[in-house]
């Protein structure tokens, strides 16, 4: 059968990814559509009780078996039900390949779309509409989101085709080469009962640029505006509008934002090829958001060399076909002379300041001897803190890699892809904060949300983040990664495998004290394991070192565990302004 999963991260949230497993009449050798109808359902995996959308294929000579699938409890799924009472079934050309496409939003509904590049017919049926209820339903067809080919009309064509045992509604056979249509079916007595599908016959799927927005210190401009683009690019492709000779100094820009022509049925992934001498590597940077924008962080191309950005339509089976890619080559040169001079002046000023303070320190050496000893003690504690944090990072990474391996071993490719995307984002954020003694509570909250989302994919629990409205997280600084070990402990030792498992993370003030709490409804700690896992051990050691660094011992960790759950609270006394 064919799985598909919603993704909830910017552009990923609109991607339609399918994983093939035991599909009847589905040719695994060439990934063709096969002699089937696809039906959109929601089902619970028997092995792990995860509820998710599932596309079931049924043979086009035994279409009635979709009802058997809904009632079947002997396979991999239980509690299978149609995504909509309409029960739309889609049949494409059996030889069609690369038909997976994006999800298109329609108010509260999500309509899945299919790419039909061979201009073949599509057939649409509704197994949920029969002789007893067909008078309650209407359907319509809209072309290119602008022309109503068929206005809302009664459903009147009932058939017994494709091996059916009871009459079902035949919505139609459609073919609009070079265009796209959306077919919607709804209950005239209750508009909330509706389902739709998008068919796209357009063959030109190469990404197109609308504009490139370049941000420089104190200004920004459209790269195509040669009057303001500082000579970074002079020629552009007449079809894709991509720059052909983009070239700029390494320290001259703050960001590059690429705006792609928005196509409702398309989602674009982005890769970066870096070439420095004989070395060449490729990075996956993510996907353009649902509005067609992609932000390229200069962090990935801040050294001189030649690069290429590649935009490609995301698909279950990628096509590395040059006619389908948007390739933007560019060169990063050495730092501009003006910036080099500025850095030289800053260096000279810095050296002057260092010499001044060195002389001052020598002059006051005797009086500052005690201060120097305290400073050395502080540095030693900070070094110990970095050592503890350096153990937390690989501990987190090894756990995440184990989770990804577990998903891959279970053939959960969609979940693994989602997990990898979250993991990449979280790893970047963790590395960025690795040398910082403090980050904002807002950043810590985002890290906690990303990590919970990752662990949710692994263990199948639910979670809630509660930030007290009295707090302003953007101006409150805390040591980084305080919450991550506590969340890991709650997920792994608390709610893993527990039906109805839930984790709640709260941040609340108590006067000038900040309280961070992680609560789970798991079975609690056993008496002989009250110290928890490795992450909790490192957290205790880290709090001990933080209290040596900050006067008054402001950090306190308290664990309360019972058979009904565990609550771990980190208190930061007199921490709030």
UniProtKB/TrEMBL annotation:
Residues forming the Histidine kinase domain are 482-576
Coiled-coil intervals: 364-391
EC code:
2.7.13.3
**UniProt GO molecular function:** protein histidine kinase activity
Q: Which SMART domains match?
A: HATPase_c (SM00387)
What general EC class does the enzyme of this chain belong to? transferase
Signal peptide limits: 1-25
Sorted UniProt keywords = Coiled coil, Kinase, Membrane, Signal, Transferase, Transmembrane, Transmembrane helix
Q: Where are the transmembrane segments?
A: 345-363
Pfam annotation, one family: HATPase_c
Signal listed as a keyword: yes
Q: Which InterPro entries does this chain map to?
A: Bact_2-comp_sensor_kinase (IPR050640), HATPase_C_sf (IPR036890), HATPase_dom (IPR003594), His_kinase_dom (IPR005467), Sig_transdc_His_kin_internal (IPR010559)
> Could you confirm whether the keyword Kinase appears in this record?
yes
Instruction: Note the SUPFAM superfamilies from the entry.
Output: ATPase domain of HSP90 chaperone/DNA topoisomerase II/histidine kinase
Q: What is this protein called in UniProt?
A: Sensor histidine kinase
Organism lineage: Bacteria, Pseudomonadati, Bacteroidota, Chitinophagia, Chitinophagales
